[in-house]
Design a protein that fits this description.
The protein is of the alpha/beta class. It has two domains: about 180 residues, Leucine Aminopeptidase, subunit E, domain 1 (3-Layer(aba) Sandwich), CATH 3.40.220; about 300 residues, Zn peptidases (Aminopeptidase), CATH 3.40.630. Helix content is about 35%, strand content about 20%. It has 14 helices and 20 strands. The strands form four sheets. Strands 7, 8, 9, 10, 11, 14, 15, 16 and 18 form a nine-stranded mixed sheet that branches. It has a six-stranded mixed sheet with strand order 1-6-5-2-4-3, with helices on both faces. The longest helix is centred in the middle third of the chain and has 26 residues.
């Protein structure tokens, strides 16, 4: 991940020194004003002419490139914001993304932009600044990968210009939050995009330790012997088929005493073959992304450490591989989780709920009153919601409402599944306290509910990101590959609970 330096400057966009400047225009506006009007005047009415000729309409994400030689300003990009009456912070992100991608294609290293939507858009300047920075930095992301020839560098500096000095404080706060959130998402993307041999459980734990050192988090990594002493038979059961040692990452943000303790638990399955219940070979190479929940928690904890909410937050990530071998867990085996509950193994490919069972039980033992787990858990969630929404299974209306509110601020989409008692019948076992899989029906619901069995008494929510953690094609500021979904929602949840 290449970091982009973000600065707020109190000046006119036409006076700033940069390779490219970015202004905007709402759809249906014939005569550009404010900063866009200044660019229009400096270019002899080029923006007005493009609008009048129909070359540029101002549709959301549409871009107009102006070569401003002799105009006293560098190259300029005008980005469309769509109709003013329909403008939102999410549309500011999408517009900023489109403009930043265009600037990257123009090989700009320093980019200056106005804040999208804080003028006639009527939105709060702080939120608009945050959205502008988030969209810009998320759009500028490019996974370095392991190619012999390095990709050309993208923008290295983003200048947010604001002429009104009374708004500078708000814009600076929003820009900083946006930069922290976007960099956290891009960190998660890097972790998930890494191939499994470059992101083993040990390497994932090392990445978490580096994040902790950089951001000022407490960090402890539980080893196999620690897990045995704690009775984490579910995590150890999944890990027993791999030569790679399991790790349990525990990150801690202190916050202030006297507030509810929030725990974020992320599935860190660095490669999932399905174990003895082997997956189909088609697409198995993408099973490196089965640690996307753990990556989201590590990245969210970094953002939380930098933004410093008052609420104490734990980040817990059980890390292992799920492989077939002579020592691997078998269908029909019975194992015991940390809280003493026994589990009959129906499918070794239903391993995420097993490692998270010990994670949420451990979170509760450490005093967490509110527990959120996040995982690429079930194909059933993708079948139900596709790649548009992530799923929620929860025992708490209040915690669910908080998550949905945080997601709305972050621009992410979640949908809550029902949790009627009848669903619990589907995973009852004849030989153990429960099975690790129910029948084919309601798999996204039962998969989540099984995790919830291990933190009874706490407010709990499970986020299933199986359909949204990875994308096969570019979608706005979501590049092809890892999306970093849930990072901003989790960090925003902590901010909201700390107010």
């Amino acid at each position: 991940m290449v970091r982009v330096n973000v600065r707020v400057v109190n000046t006119s966009i036409t006076d700033v020194r940069s390779d490219v400047i970015i202004v905007n225009l709402f759809q249906g506006i014939a005569g550009p004003g404010a900063a866009t009007g200044a660019v229009d005047r400096a270019t002899g009415g080029a923006v007005s002419l493009a609008v009048q000729s129909g070359e540029f309409e101002g549709k959301l994400g549409e871009t107009l490139v102006l070569r401003c030689a002799g105009a006293g300003i560098p190259k300029a990009i005008v980005v469309g914001l769509g109709p003013a009456a329909q403008f939102t912070a999410e549309k500011a992100r999408r517009a900023a993304d489109s403009a930043m991608r265009q600037a990257s294609r123009m090989k700009a290293r320093t980019v200056a932009t106005i804040v999208h939507g804080a003028g006639i858009g009527g939105l709060d300047p702080e939120m608009c600044a945050r959205a502008t920075v988030e969209g810009s930095l998320l759009g500028a992301y490019n996974y370095a990968g392991f190619k012999a020839k390095a990709a050309e560098p993208g923008p290295s500096e983003l200048l947010i210009t604001e002429l009104d000095s009374s708004k500078i404080g708000s814009v600076e706060r929003g820009a900083r939050t946006g930069a922290v959130m976007a960099e956290a998402v891009n960190l998660a993307r890097d972790l998930v995009n890494a191939p499994a041999n470059k992101m083993t459980p040990s390497m994932m734990a090392e990445a978490a330790q580096s994040v902790a050192q950089e951001a000022g988090l407490e960090c402890r990594v539980l080893e196999r012997q620690d897990m045995k002493q704690l009775g984490m038979g579910a995590l150890l059961g999944v890990a027993q088929g791999s030569a790679e040692p399991p790790k349990m990452v525990v990150l801690k943000h202190q916050g202030s005493a006297g507030r509810p303790a929030l725990a974020l638990c992320g599935k860190g399955l660095t490669f999932d073959s399905g174990g003895i219940s082997l997956k189909n070979r088609d697409g198995m190479e993408l099973m490196k992304d089965d640690m996307a929940g753990g990556a989201a928690v590590i990245a969210a904890m970094k953002a939380i450490a930098l933004l410093k909410p008052e609420v104490p937050v734990l980040g817990i990530v059980p890390c292992t591989e799920n492989l077939p071998s002579g020592t691997a867990l078998k269908p029909g085996d019975v194992i015991s989780a940390m809280n003493g509950k026994t589990i009959e193994i129906i499918s070794t490919d239903a391993e995420g709920r097993l490692i998270l069972a010990d994670a949420v039980a451990y979170a509760k033992s450490l005093g967490a009153t509110h527990i959120v787990d996040v995982a690429t858990l079930t194909g059933a969630c993708f079948t139900a919601l596709g790649d548009v929404y992530s799923g929620i299974v929860s025992n708490s209306d209040d915690l669910t409402a908080r998550i949905l509110d945080a997601a709305a601020v972050a621009g992410e989409r979640f949908w809550r599944f029902p949790t009627a008692e009848e669903y619990e019948e589907k995973y009852k076992s004849d030989v153990a306290d429960l099975k690790n899989a129910g029948d084919r029906g309601a798999g996204a619901i039962t998969g989540g509910l099984i995790i919830g069995e291990f933190c009874k008494g706490s407010a709990w929510a499970h986020l299933d990101i199986a359909g949204t953690a990875f994308t096969s094609s570019e979608k706005g500021y979501q590049p092809k590959g890892a999306t970093g979904v849930a990072v901003r929602t989790l960090a925003q949840l902590a901010l909201d609970m700390g107010r």
